[in-house]
Amino acid sequence: MLLDSIQKVSVPVWHSDMTLTVLEHIFIFNLRSYDRINKTPAMTEQERISKVTYQNVQRALAEEIMGGGIHGAEAPQSDHKHNSDDEGEIDNPKEKAKAEAEKKDLMEQRRRFEDAAKHVGLSKFNDIDGDRIADSKDSIAENAMLGMPPVSEELWNKEYPDQELENFIQEELYIHDKLLIVDDRAVICGSSNINDRSQLGNHDSELSIVMQDTHTIDSVMNGQPYKAAHHATTLRRMLWREHLGLLPPQQLDATQDRNAQPPGDCDNDTHATGEEKQFDDFVRDPLDDRLWEEWTQRATVNTEVFRELFHADPDDCIRTFKEYDEFLPIEDQSKSGDESEVWWKKQGEFGGRCRDDRSFANVHNTGHLHDPNVSITHVKQQLDRIKGHLVWMPLHFLEDENMAQKGLQLNAITEVIYT
Questions:
Q1: Which of 158, 259, 301, 373 lies most in the core, judged by the most C-beta atoms within 10 Å?
Q2: pLDDT digit string (tens) for 333-380?
Q3: Which residues pair with 180 in a beta bridge?
């Protein structure tokens, strides 16, 4: 394995017989996030009564926020054009009428969906005792970011307390851009990977740009005064703060967000003034010992919580396929063969929300809580510990397995495909 090779490489140090292990000086991290699916049996009944899916309600909300283009109307190839004074406006009368009709239909669906709330007990307040019973947020992923309340303070429909346990989820964040920031002075950003497929020039089509800013600002590097490129250093600081949970979450409605405006319309908001200046200063020097301690400690805490609550994989504690089987949840042992497969498919269709005398204790959906009997208080207290999205990359995952199975080898065909 490549990783096995990396671990055993020795690199000579300047004019010395000493050697060092690469992974003692190169550290790799991943990003991971949690959330809570905001859906209960009552909301399913709300969909049935209104004959409107929650997905269409979300489309209607997006239409309100973002305007045209959400409804999915397709323009004909020949006579669809844009007004140069109002780009995005549909000039073709037929297509414009069609778009407006779809928009009105979405708004009507949203109205019917909201009207059905009172028939299933999902009005904002309970008429009997005034307690909030349905004020849960559509997403709590933002709670890991700066200035947000802890998960333990988030409301949930009290009529379905067990449902909340089933609805917690996690997933690794796959950021597909290829970004390299060098010494806070140069940035390479694009689609190209560091492999032959991208770099040889006769395989995949790629595009990357190199950004070197002539505008420098006073900064710090390894404790010493340093002239950093404005773009490179502010980009790195924003990303690092996001990873550490030291940046406010982005809002769904980005109408007033300076960072969501077209280039040239306004300066970016680097969140480096007022109360947030302390966090920008904290990540200013990438070689600062305090920052490195916070970075590794944050990755460790986040990794431990995801491991305990979700058995998130891959994980460093999984060194063999046998350990992998033991790490993952066990499916319903009372069924076998086709019956078990049908049962799992049924659970998947309902998002794990079915509950009867057979189900939840033996059925687990990927990404959900590992232990169905854990207390909701403990889950929320643990999620309160997660800040940002930083976790350790599991470099020891399956390291004790021989992945180069007999009969599988690199040859003239596979080399072209994989390199």
A1: 301
A2: 444 444 434 333 433 333 333 333 334 434 567 899 999 889 999 999
A3: 188
Residues 31/390, Cβ–Cβ less than 8 Å:
yes
399/33: higher pLDDT: 33
Alpha-carbon gap, residue 396 to 2, rounded angstroms: 12
Per-residue 3-state assignment (H helix, E strand, C coil) for 171-196: EECCCCCEEEEECCCEEEEECCCCCH
Rounded to 5°, the CA angle 331-362-381 comes to 110
Tell me the torsion sign for CA atoms 260, 261, 263, 264.
negative
Q: Could you give phi then psi for residue 64, rounded to 5 degrees?
A: -65, -40
Gyration radius from the chain CA atoms: 26
pTM: 0.74
Q: Pick from 29, 25, 24, 23: which is nearest to 244 by CA? A: 29
Cβ distance 114 to 140 under 8 Å? no
3-state secondary structure the chain: CHHHHHHHCEEECCCCCCEEEHHHCCCCEEEEEEEECCCCHHHHHHHHHHCCCHHHHHHHHHHHHHCCCCCCCCCCCCCCCEECCEEEEECCHHHHHHHHHHHHHHHHHHHHHHHHHHHHCCCCECCCCCCECCCCCCCCHHHHCCCCCCHHHCCCCCCCHHHHHHHEEEEECCCCCEEEEECCCEEEEECCCCCHHHHCCCCCCCCEEEEECCCEEEEEECCEEEEEEHHHHHHHHHHHHHHHCCCCCCCCCCCCCHHHCCCCCCCCCCCCCHHHHHHHHHCCCCCCHHHHHHHHHHHHHHHHHHHHHHCCCCCCCCCCHHHHHHHCCCCCCCCCHHHHHHHHHHHHHCCCCCCCCCCCCCCCCCCECCCCCCCHHHHHHHHHCCCCCEEECCCCCCCCCCCCCCCCCCCHHHHHHHC
Phi-psi group of 253: left, alpha or beta (phi > 0 → left; psi -120 to 50 → alpha; rest → beta) = beta
Residue whose entry in the numeric block shows the structure tokens 């982005």:
250
Whole-number mean pLDDT of the chain?
78
Residues, the chain = 419
